[in-house]
Design goal:
- This protein is an all-beta fold.
- It has a domain at 18-80.
- Helix content is 0%, strand content 63%.
- It contains no helices and 6 strands.
- Strands 1-2-3-4-5-6 form a 6-stranded antiparallel beta barrel.
- A hairpin with a 2-residue loop joins strand 2 and strand 3.
- The radius of gyration is 18 Å and the shape is elongated.
């Protein structure tokens, strides 16, 4: 264990990302294809395809789970987005199938200090 400041930080605290205020620009209901890391029990999304363009996920800002779906708010290399994964159940076979949707485009406004 080391007892000095962490790399890239001078006062011993973790380097902090600026706070983001997210403003919803456009509501969408677009099917997308999400790429995930293959390792691990619960694979982490690394990017998604929107048409023929690939958007690399830089940071996952928020995760929410609801009945039959999960939602992600992500910061990508081309903007901020809300993603939703819906799990459909076939009533005859009871097999589940997941599909991803792009539900909103967001504008991220960085703020250096907390507002409250």
């Amino acid at each position: 264990m080391t007892s000095g400041p962490r790399s890239g930080d001078h006062d011993g605290r973790r380097p902090r990302h600026p706070h983001l205020i997210l403003i919803e620009r456009r509501v969408l209901a677009e099917p997308i294809v999400v790429e995930t890391e293959p390792a691990g029990r619960r694979p982490r999304p690394t990017g998604f395809w929107r048409g023929t363009a690939f958007y690399r996920i830089v940071r996952i800002l928020e995760r929410r789970w609801e009945r039959g779906e999960s939602r992600l708010r992500v910061l990508a290399d081309r903007g901020c987005f809300d993603l939703r994964r819906v799990t459909d159940v076939d009533p005859w076979t009871w097999r589940t199938e997941g599909r991803w949707e792009l539900t909103a485009e967001l504008t991220a406004v960085p703020v250096r200090r907390p507002l409250f």
